[in-house]
Design a protein that fits this description.
Length: 218
């Protein structure tokens, strides 16, 4: 399976690249924004494509991903301002979905935020605009595309070593999860078709990643 990764230089996606290196069934195409980011991926034998999610067109992104079997969206503004949040986490996500459809690819995996929906949006907190952007991107994916989507809602991302164990479901109390375990979860999602048209929260837990993902939608 060839996976086109948007936001490939992000912290979660870099862990994803490390897992890809050890997975003989997944091949990555990493979409990066700066040429100097390429060395990390070349060291792992991963092909890179130099594109800017904001500046490049849908047609250009579709052309770059045309040989892929799946798309992983792991891009984010990372607290760089409300304008960038809208341009990347909302409009950029929709551009990516539209490009995926134009390229004739069906599989699309979205890395979202932990809580979305009207209740989460209405809460006054520093991530309110980010939550709005993620919510409407998720809704677009579910209701305005024909893609075989999965939406993963990670908890509070931390840089602790992964435990290879998680807890998945919806309606959980927020807690931490190592970025490495999120990346492993994304690998597992791509291996399991039972995750298609499913969304779930993922937190640190005591169930092996593969087992937890196999039980999604059961």
């Amino acid at each position: 399976m060839k996976v086109f990764v948007i936001g490939a230089n992000g912290k979660v996606a870099r862990h994803f690249a490390d897992f890809v290196k050890e997975d003989s069934t997944i091949e990555e195409i990493a979409m990066i924004r700066k040429a100097e980011q390429a060395d990390f991926f070349k060291e792992r034998g991963i092909e890179t494509v130099l594109l800017d999610l904001v500046k490049n067109t849908i047609a250009e992104i579709a052309e770059a991903m045309k040989d892929a079997d799946a798309v992983l969206f792991s891009a984010g503004a990372g607290g760089s301002g409300y304008d960038k949040t809208v341009l990347i986490d909302l409009d950029g996500a929709i551009k990516a979905m539209t490009a995926t459809e134009q390229a004739g690819i069906k599989r699309f995996v979205m890395v979202s935020t932990f809580q979305t929906g009207r209740e989460a949006i209405s809460q006054e907190h520093g991530l309110q605009v980010y939550t709005i952007a993620k919510n409407y991107a998720d809704e677009w994916l579910k209701n305005r595309t024909t893609l075989d989507w999965t939406i993963v809602h990670p908890g509070i991302l931390v840089d602790k070593p992964g435990t290879h164990q998680v807890k998945v479901g919806m309606g959980q109390e927020i807690n931490e999860i190592p970025r490495q375990d999120v990346a492993q979860t994304l690998i597992s999602v791509l291996h399991h078709d039972n995750t298609i048209k499913q969304e779930f929260e993922v937190l640190a837990g005591n169930t092996a990643v593969e087992e937890a993902i196999r039980k999604v939608n059961q």
